[in-house]
Amino acid sequence: MQAPAAYVTDRVYPSYFYPESQPLWLSTVARLRGLRGPDLDRAYRYCELGCGTGFNVILAAALNPVGHFTGVDINREHIELARALARDMGVRNVEFHCRDLQGFVQDNTVAFDIANCHGMWSWVAPGVQRSILEFVARHLKPKGLFCLHYMCHPGSTAMIPVHQLFRSMARQGKGDSRAAVARGLEAVERLLAAGYYDDQPRLRERLQGLKRADADALAHELLAEFFSVHHAGDIHWLAAQAGLSFIGSSEPFYNTDPALCLPSDMHPLLESDSSPAFVETLKDMGSRRPHRSDVFQKNAALPDARERREALDSLVFLYDGAAAPDFPAIATPLGPMTVSDEAFLRLAELARTDGRVAFRDFAAALPAGTADGRGVQAARMMLHAGLLRPEQPEASRAGVQRLAAIDRLLAARNVGLRLRRDCASGQFLRTQAW
User: Where does residue 379 rank: exposed (0-12), middle (13-18), buried (19+ CB within 10 A)?
Assistant: First the structure.
């Protein structure tokens, strides 16, 4: 999305599907905060900035026939592949633009309900980052949702010199980006063998994993001219200048009460009036997650009691017991956690009985006054575990035959993903690779 000299263009970025960027999932994040975002039962528009080969936004379009989807990328080969894939899949409610972001921001005349920017922010120049914020300031509708993925401190702090190592080796060597990646990996192997990272076990494990990663993905992530790691508070301040309010993570675990998503030895640091930026900093320090996927709302306002209740009551969840066979033990970024709260167990029981559960019915089964607190926490934790998935209303679902044809194409191309019309998302059969 930036000038070609600053971004890798000789390798095609691998295609990935991101469930946490799908319209229904982002809407669910908002509604669990008591906020009503775009109405997904009526015509809406979704834009993906830095769409790569379009795989994610094409599947989003296929799963959500009510919406119209737009993908933007600077790499012409990416856009040509995206258009060809959309034709092969028979997906017509998606369009692609081969544009640099600054030009797209200036020329675009369409207002969007949802925008997504994944795998781009931390790899582009500051000027392009400003264009991303200008895009949402000018072209995202009021109450619209914006999902922004970026690398964060302290989980990715140690990767800054690693990126510089790869970039330096690329500048001094010959050959294409794959050759540069190979030289960088060889250097990393030598450093690991010499014991340079023995005192940083997390980083050592991460570096050891590089040799198993896709070489073209590494080219884009480690050879781009720019690489930036950010504090959440800084990003949230910048977003606020564009009229955006942080409403949570697209990863539900990090939206649970700090008593759940923070290590116990951090609890004494919390106070009743701790600022959101302080709490998010503690979450990043406690989990040491390498990246964040933050959800913002344009011109957001605190909901009153009625608005909050309406947002929550609009939620319906599907049950998938196979996702967490050891429940009430759940895997979390902080390690295994055994759920014992009555609200969690009650939600699981209701969902398991009928295969689905409306939040309204779940709230009625809880002690008075606890649905907004413990009830919401239970839903978030169940979504994190994969035991629950938001249900797509029948009237907004994609056609059975349409998705079956796409599933056959995915299987023929050995892609370990199958689409689910009931939750407008995908189910991975194995690690995805297109």
Answer: buried
Rounded Cα gap, residues 370 and 373, in angstroms:
5
Beta bridge partners of 246: 296
Handedness of CA 197, 202, 203, 206 (dihedral sign): positive
Whether residue 138 is found in the same domain as residue 283: yes
Same domain membership, residue 129 and residue 16: yes
Containing domain of residue 170, as a range?
Answer: 159-222
Q: Are 218 and 162 spatial neighbours (Cβ–Cβ below 8 Å)?
A: no
Query: Which secondary structure element, helix H or strand E, spans residue 46, and what is its range?
Result: strand 44-49
How far is residue 123's CA from residue 334's CA, in Å, rounded to a whole number? 28
| Kind plus residue range of the DSSP H or E element containing 357 | strand 356-358
Helix residue ranges per DSSP H, 315-371: 342-354, 359-364
Q: Each residue of 251-277: b (16+ CB within 10 Å) or e?
A: bbbbbbebebbbeeeeeeeeeeeeeeb
Q: What is the pLDDT of residues 262-301, one digit of tens each?
A: 999 999 999 877 899 999 999 999 999 999 999 999 999 9
Q: What is the pTM of this model?
A: 0.95
- In this structure, the answer to whether residues 142 and 193 fall within a common structural domain is no
Cβ atoms of 15 and 53 within 8 Å: the answer is yes
Residue 338's Cβ-count burial label (10 Å; 0-12, 13-18, 19+) is exposed
pLDDT digits (tens, 9 = 90+) for 136-191: 999 999 999 999 999 999 999 999 999 999 999 888 878 899 999 999 999 999 99
With DSSP H G I counted as helix, E B as strand and the rest as coil, what are the percentages for the chain, rounded to 5? Answer: 50, 15, 35
Looking at the structure, tell me whether residues 327 and 375 fall in a common domain: yes
How far is residue 28's CA from residue 26's CA, in Å, rounded to a whole number? 5
How many of the other CB atoms lie within 10 Å of CB of 137? 15
Closest Cα partner for 23 from 12, 39, 11? 39
